[in-house]
Specification:
This protein is an alpha+beta fold and 790 residues long. The chain is 59% helix and 6% strand. It contains 34 helices and seven strands. The longest helix is centred in the last third of the chain and has 30 residues. It is elongated and about 125 Å long. The N and C termini lie far apart (145 Å).
Length: 790
């Protein structure tokens, strides 16, 4: 048998930059006397004639491409190429070339320094590489065909040439004829080769080939080829599944034959991708991009064809909302709509908006009100999926519809309340539907995606609606389960549901302001939630704690006062004490909450915790949180005491001012003397700090007596000179003078108003019981100026 390792095709680049086939032969390397060097010789396969005799020049740039191709230039504008049938033969000749030029055979080009024009020429050679010659399509050549296709996958250029050759020669249909022969003959070796061939044809990633393989008359034969995986002992029965088990249900008869054909094709191709083809490796994954695109554009075309058929959609929604429609028929309609919405995810944004507007105008939300409340689990699940698609794309559609319902629909029939009811009443032990609906509610309640326009405020309107008509439905299971100070139900499904409700309420606390605040304060919601701190399910305990932590994180004094007034740290501290220092998530979460209070220096909560729970927390020594909290509390108390003392001092210092007016001015020396006397008394006050409260009235009395006696002395001197006589007869008319320059209150009033004065002032002005200040003024020798009477 002829050695195929050295079997090559010789190509020459013509003037049009296209490769001409110069014949097939066998290559060798030998010393040629005439050329005086090692040369490449190619002799024709047919008659042995010499097709090529080329000396290996030491300065010629030889280029190895795709493991089976060697390209070089013979002079100007004359390029040659050898295309080897086998990689081993190419490697042998390449090693000989590198040996002559003194190069390492691992290189792909033998000359490092190449002029720019030569670089461009090599690029052109790559773009116009010689075409691939496919072996004849015979049973005996299946192994060669499989090896050829496999070798071409490593090179983009070779893949292009191979795909072009397969398409132009109608090679796929020829291979499928061999498949029928192998199945009839039970030639499993051939069938295994065909499996490899078609698997690799998929990896060529060519849409033109997919169009051929996925045509109605061919696709089942292609699937049949992929049933004979060499790694499996038995054949996989994919064709039986597609033809017999996979049933196409027409919810409404589809009259458009193009649409019907496209739906069938898309299902089958999706099945090939997901089930029939082996799981692609990391390197093969990107090779199926065109297959993904084929499916993608098929789905887009299906959506467009359905949308264009207005009669079809109108009939569909009419049947969906008709009360006489059977549940089984309604289930098929909902499942069709679900697939329809799933396909729409491939649309461009503008087309997707048109799609959802079309569904909304046709009444899809009104239909979902019916299907969400159905007992059939498949119908309900598909309805939840459809609602999720709509809300994820545009929650405003649902909000606007809900607000329109508020004026003319009973609360139980409003879509938003139906969603909440279905979340609460989910019968699935794992609450799969409830989790999905909670996600829907979260999107609807997220103010970040709410529109605010000049004449329309979606955020305000929708939140007002929710907290007025819907929140009571949401929290009803929570209030019911905590009605008697202990969790009433501890089964897994109930606590899972309560966890979802708490997660949604925590989201509301974080993103809503006065709406959720009013709800919490009016319904005493935090107290009821903290009942769950007694639950035996730790995740639910953590959910309740997380809700309280969200409130504290806001540092809102309304919430702080609510917590203090209700003594709502008690359940948390009790849970902390019951945990008994175990190193778990609950212990860390509670400590973190108190650490936050400490770091943020929330004084009201800090004081409340230390004063009410200090004894329970003082013994916690494995963290410094509570000791630091106590230290912060002590510092705060010291500051309060200092502030109170300063306040008392300022009050005492300002008392004399009530008796002074700008009508009399004292001598500056007299004021200095009295200030000195006042500060002397203040020193005594400071020295006896512990008796501040008990002695305050005495100090005030003494100071008042001192200042009032001074005023009395001034008035007496004025009377001796030219003022009227003042005696102890309280019924006698008198004029009371005020000489405090800093006072804004005038006491110069007619005697008829004397009854309105305090008894203290009457005693000071008339009785002169405090004569000490007169004596001190006389001893000091200071002269008091005469007051001017006006």
């Amino acid at each position: 048998m002829t050695d195929t390792r050295r079997r090559v095709k010789l190509y020459a680049l013509n003037a049009d930059r296209q490769w001409d086939d110069r014949g097939t032969g066998h290559v060798s390397s030998a010393y040629v006397d005439r050329l005086k060097g090692i040369s490449l010789l190619v002799r024709a396969e047919s008659d042995g004639s010499l097709l090529l005799e080329s000396k290996i020049q030491p300065d010629t740039a030889y280029q190895k491409q795709q493991d089976t191709l060697i390209v070089w230039s013979e002079g100007d504008n004359f390029d040659l190429a050898l295309s080897f049938q086998e990689k081993a033969g190419c490697d042998e000749i390449w090693e000989k070339i590198c040996q002559v030029q003194g190069k390492d055979p691992s290189v792909e080009i033998t000359q490092d320094i190449v002029e720019e024009s030569e670089d461009e020429r090599f690029d052109d050679m790559s773009d116009s590489a010689p075409p691939i010659e496919l072996p004849s399509c015979e049973l005996s050549r299946l192994e060669d065909i499989s090896e050829l296709i496999s070798n071409c996958l490593s090179s983009p250029m070779r893949k292009e040439k191979l795909a072009a050759a397969i398409e132009s020669e109608g090679y796929i249909r020829k291979l499928l004829n061999l498949f029928h022969m192998c199945e009839d003959l039970e030639n499993y070796e051939g069938l295994h080769h065909l499996y490899d061939i078609f698997k690799n044809i998929f990896l060529l990633n060519k849409n033109a080939l997919f169009e051929v393989m996925f045509s109605d008359d061919v696709i089942f034969d292609v699937v049949g080829c992929l049933e004979y995986d060499p790694s499996c002992i038995t054949r996989k029965k994919h064709r039986e599944y597609l033809k017999q088990q996979a049933k196409f249900r027409e919810a409404i008869p589809i009259r458009n034959t193009e649409l019907l054909s496209k739906i069938h094709q898309t299902f089958r191709v999706q099945y090939i991708q997901d089930v029939v083809l082996p799981t692609p490796s990391v390197f093969e994954d990107n090779m199926l991009g065109t297959l993904n695109s084929f499916i993608f554009f098929n789905k887009v075309e299906i959506v467009s064809l359905v949308q264009e058929d207005e009669k079809f959609l109108t009939e569909l929604f009419a049947m969906l909302t008709d009360v006489n429609t059977l549940d089984s028929k309604r289930r098929d309609l909902v499942l069709f709509l679900k697939e329809f919405c799933n396909y729409s995810q491939n649309l461009q944004p503008q087309a997707k908006e048109t799609f959802y507007k079309t569904l909304t105008n046709l009444g899809i939300l009104a239909a979902l009100e019916i299907t969400l409340a159905m007992d059939d689990q498949k119908t309900k699940t598909a309805s939840i999926d459809i609602l999720t698609y709509i809300v994820e794309y545009s929650p405003s559609f649902v909000r606007e519809y809900t607000l329109q319902q508020s004026n003319n629909t009973h609360e139980d029939q409003i879509l938003l309340n139906i969603v909440i009811e279905q979340m609460i009443c989910d019968t699935d032990p794992e609450l799969g539907g409830a989790v999905q609906l909670m996600g829907v509610l979260r999107i609807l309640l997220d103010p970040e995606n709410m529109l605010a326009q000049v004449n329309k405020s979606e955020k305000t309107d929708f939140l007002n609606f929710f907290y007025k008509h819907s929140v009571q439905i949401l929290i009803a299971p929570l209030l019911e389960n905590t009605a008697h100070g202990e969790p009433q139900k501890e089964d897994y499904q109930t606590v899972q549901l309560l966890g979802l409700i708490l997660e949604l309420l925590s989201f509301c606390v974080e993103h809503h302001t006065y709406h959720i605040k009013n709800c919490i304060l009016n319904k005493d919601l935090l107290r009821r939630i903290l009942v769950l701190m007694k639950s035996t399910h730790k995740f639910l305990v953590l959910c309740a704690l997380r809700f309280m932590r969200k409130l504290i994180a806001l540092k809102d004094e309304f919430y702080n006062r609510y917590i203090i007034k209700g003594n709502l740290f008690a359940p948390v501290v009790d849970a902390f004490v019951r945990n008994n220092g175990r190193y778990n998530l609950l212990d860390s979460a509670i400590i973190e909450m108190f650490e936050f209070i400490k770091l943020e220096d929330i004084k009201t909560l800090c004081s409340h915790v230390v004063e009410n729970y200090g004894k329970s927390l003082d013994d916690i020594g494995y963290v410094q949180t509570f000791k630091t909290l106590k230290s912060r509390y002590d510092q705060h108390q010291d500051k309060l005491k200092d502030r109170d003392r300063n306040t008392l001092e300022s009050i005492c210092f300002s008392v004399p001012s009530i008796l002074r007016n700008s009508r009399y001015r004292r001598d500056q020396r007299q004021l200095d003397e009295e200030e000195e006397m006042w500060f002397n008394e203040e020193d005594d006050f400071d020295d006896n700090e512990t008796m501040v409260t008990s002695n305050t009235s005495d100090i005030l009395s003494k100071k008042l007596d001192t200042d009032l006696d001074s005023i009395g002395k001034i008035i007496e001197k004025n009377t001796d000179t030219n003022g009227p006589k003042i005696n102890n007869n309280s019924s006698q008319k008198a004029t009371v003078l005020n000489n405090n320059a800093n006072s804004g209150t005038a006491l110069a009033l007619p005697t008829t108003n004397t009854e309105n004065k305090s008894a203290l002032f009457k005693r000071s002005l008339v009785d002169y019981e405090g004569g000490d200040s007169d004596e001190e003024e006389e001893e000091s020798g200071e002269v008091t100026k005469r007051a001017r009477l006006s």
